[in-house]
Design brief:
The chain has 345 residues and is α+β, with helices and mostly antiparallel strands. The chain folds into three domains: 76 residues, Phosphorylase Kinase, domain 1; 163 residues, Transferase(Phosphotransferase) domain 1 (Transferase(Phosphotransferase), domain 1, Orthogonal Bundle); 48 residues. It is built from eleven helices and eight strands. The strands form three sheets. Strands 1-2-4-3 form a four-stranded antiparallel beta sheet, covered by helices on one side. A two-stranded antiparallel ribbon has the order 5-8. Helix 6 packs antiparallel against helix 7. It is elongated, with a radius of gyration of 28 Å. The chain starts with a strand and ends with a helix.
């Protein structure tokens, strides 16, 4: 629906991308130029609000006239890198791809939570890869604000989103919601991870999270993109990945492969040995009696996340026991002080 050019902002001296409505392609496809222009203007208003490091920035918008007619345009941040679809055509290690997915997902969480905006066209082509290894979500051209969801820019029976990634409810004429974006992003995650996983089934924790996000019924999915991101991160961290997927091999978009953390943009520091928790000395009676209990507690906590109800219950229980003991000691101390004062008289 548009042509994108690399350009130069002479006033500020910066490289930009200029996205111009491709009226010729629209005419050939039977598109409504007025509707597409309205969509472009809407994109400018919505995207200009976005100030996230994981969303392509829109600097300006306007209309120009040339031999092809009146054409609206957007001036955007220039991302000198491929999109995720192009990136998947090259060798890429699992941590790098997870980094891309989490970056773009952070952009979606921001759009949903801060501006109540639904993207409606999540796909690998709309995830741009920056030279520094980060990822940005782009193309809010068919996005809608939830509070204006009743103002439909699409005509009846006119499919806007990419069918391969569209949620079932949007394919049957229902309104797109934030949960529709969750479905589409889960499709992108499944496709990306299957690509690097060599055709083998994905680890079970990851499958469970993605399968829930891909439920046909929106009510059965995660309640938000933020909840999906939290569950996806937890599943990735606890999944057993094959060595060939985790290995850092191949070339990155910037030249050499950058060692990155699994879910955090930026360079990962050299691996360090995780220090062993200090143990209670066993050369005393207290240490001898308490050491097995502390070791068992540590083994239990290592298997639980901080969001696990059992972890929370354990912390509350431990705090209650500690509070009771301290209260009892304080009571004894106050009683002893009281008795001592009384005996002085």
């Amino acid at each position: 629906m548009a042509e994108v050019y690399a350009g130069l902002d002479h006033q500020l001296g910066r490289s930009v991308a200029v996205k111009m409505l491709d009226s010729g392609s629209l005419a050939a496809a039977g598109g409504d130029l007025g509707m597409q222009r309205a969509r472009f203007e809407r994109e400018a208003r919505i995207a200009a609000k976005m100030t996230s490091a994981h969303i392509v920035t829109v600097h300006d918008s306007g209309v120009c006239q040339d031999s092809r007619g009146v054409r609206p345009f957007l001036v955007m941040e220039l991302v000198d890198g491929p999109n995720l679809r192009q990136r998947l055509r090259e060798p890429c290690a699992l941590p790098v791809l997870l980094n891309y997915l989490d970056g773009a997902l952070s952009g979606l969480v921001y759009a949903h939570s801060e501006h109540h905006v639904v993207h409606r066209d999540i796909k690998p082509e709309n995830i741009m890869i920056c030279p520094d290894g980060s990822a940005k979500l782009t193309d809010f051209g068919i996005a809608i604000e939830l509070r204006e969801n009743f103002q439909r820019l699409t005509r009846a029976h006119h499919q806007v989103a990419t069918p391969a990634y569209a949620a079932p409810e949007t394919m049957h004429g229902s309104q797109a919601t934030q949960l529709s974006d969750v479905f589409s992003f889960a499709r992108v995650c499944w496709e990306t991870l299957s690509h690097i996983h060599g055709g083998a089934p994905l680890p079970e924790p990851v499958q469970v999270v993605l399968a829930r996000a891909l439920e046909p019924d929106p009510a059965a999915r995660q309640r938000s993109a933020r909840e999906f991101q939290t569950q996806f991160r937890h599943a990735v961290a606890h999944a057993a990945w094959p060595l060939h997927a985790v290995a850092h091999s191949g070339a990155s978009a910037g030249g050499g492969m950058r060692h990155t953390s699994v879910l955090t943009p930026g360079d990962m520091q050299e691996s360090q040995q995780i220090p062993t928790p200090p143990r209670l000395p066993t050369d005393t009676t207290a240490g001898f009696l308490l050491a097995p209990m502390i070791d068992q507690r540590q083994r239990v906590l290592e298997r639980l996340s901080k969001n696990d109800p059992r972890y929370v219950a354990g912390v509350i229980g431990a705090a209650a026991v500690a509070g009771a003991l301290l209260g009892w000691l304080a009571f004894l101390l106050i009683g002893w002080v009281g008795v001592t004062i009384v005996n002085q008289f």
